[in-house]
Amino acid sequence: MTRPLVIAIDGPAASGKSTLGYHLARYLNYLYLDTGALYRAVTLAALRRGIPIEDEARVTALAESLPIEVRPPQGEDDGRQYTVLLDGEDVTWALRTPRVDRAVSPVSAYPGVRAALTRRMREIARRGSVVMVGRDIGTVVLPDADLKLYVVASLDARARRRFLDRLAQGKQVSLEEVRTDLARRDRIDSSREAAPLRPAADAIILDNTNLTAEETFREAERLVREDC
Question: Which own/partner pairs from 85-91 qualify as long-range (CB within 8 Å, at least 24 positions apart)?
Fold first, then answer.
């Protein structure tokens, strides 16, 4: 029996799809690629370089030329799931600040940015043995993926998870602030013209509102075995 070589995992922010993708990739000994990190890297670079987020042409040009490297953790012991290098600098945690959170959705909605980063993602997927996580992997980036999962959870559950993550990172934010930001991102991601957030027609919906991360992984593991 042949297990799926290319697995696509999509879902809204803070649904737990990244944690699931990471553990599933480790279980299968596959490459793990959180594609959101690429969009966040472009966003961070634009903010640092003083490029207005609303300047679509300049942000797109940046996405087309920006040197970004995503690799497995190499000895770091800070809970990261991957390491992101931007111009050679480790920006893994800088990508997860509230400032980047607020700006990444407009950046990820630009067709030119999506096209530039989609090309990079497909190049990686051609090698096989990859778990790729994002918002349009199963619908746009890898429509022929062997297995597609769409991870969902209620807004309140997602806000609570993201809030606790922020506290663990030493960030001072309120639960309501996190909930408002997530609701705003949901609206932007679901209504954007370029690759709106939605499950692929052949995706398996995995609702983990009332599941722990371990239970979510076990359910995904079962689905992988069934797909073999």
Answer: 86/41, 86/44, 86/45, 87/45, 91/41, 91/44
Q: Which residues are bridge partners to 133 per DSSP? A: 9, 34
For residue 138, give the DSSP letter. Answer: I
pLDDT in tens, 12-42: 999 999 999 999 999 999 989 999 899 999 9
Given a contact cutoff of 8 angstroms between Cβ atoms, the answer to whether 198 and 139 are in contact is yes
The mean pLDDT value of the chain amounts to 92
DSSP 203: P
- Contact predicate 145/6, CB 8 Å: yes
The Cα 199–Cα 176 span in angstroms is 27
The single-letter code of the amino acid at 27 is Y
The one-letter amino acid code at 19 reads: T
Q: Token digits for 91?
A: 């920006």
If we measure between CA atoms, which residue out of 7, 60, 61 comes closest to residue 34?
7
**HSE (CB half, 13 Å, CA atoms) of 148?**
21
Interatomic CA distance for residues 79 and 113, integer angstroms = 29
What residues contact 213, with CB distance under 8 A and at least 6 apart? 16, 19, 20, 23
Rounded distance between C-alpha atoms, residue 41 and residue 175, angstroms = 25
Identify the DSSP state of 140. Answer: I
Share of the chain above pLDDT 70, in %: 99
Helix (H, G, I), strand (E, B) or coil at 74: coil
**Residue 69 three-state SS:** strand
